[in-house]
Amino acid sequence: MLGVPELPLLVVDHPLGGLALERVHARAEQALEQLLALPGFAR
After folding, report:
1. Is 10 left (phi over 0), alpha (psi -120 to 50) or beta?
2. What's the rounded Cα separation, in Å, for the pair 24 and 6?
3. Which of 7, 12, 20, 28 is 20 to 30 A (C-alpha) from 35?
């Protein structure tokens, strides 16, 4: 996986273009939840 198997990645469903702003915000919230759940993430 990209030569760095321990590299954490966030998954954001695509496409984002053409979505209502509310749906873009929902996907951003999902990405934020993933980010905050990463081990060692400093808040």
Report:
1. beta
2. 28
3. 20
What's the rounded Cα separation, in Å, for the pair 28 and 33? 9
Cβ 27 vs Cβ 16: under 8 Å: yes
With vertex at residue 16, the alpha carbon angle to CA 25 and CA 5, rounded to the nearest 5 degrees, is 90
* pTM greater than the 0.90 cutoff: no
| Residue pLDDT, tens place only, 1-43 | 568 888 888 999 889 899 999 999 999 999 999 999 998 877 6
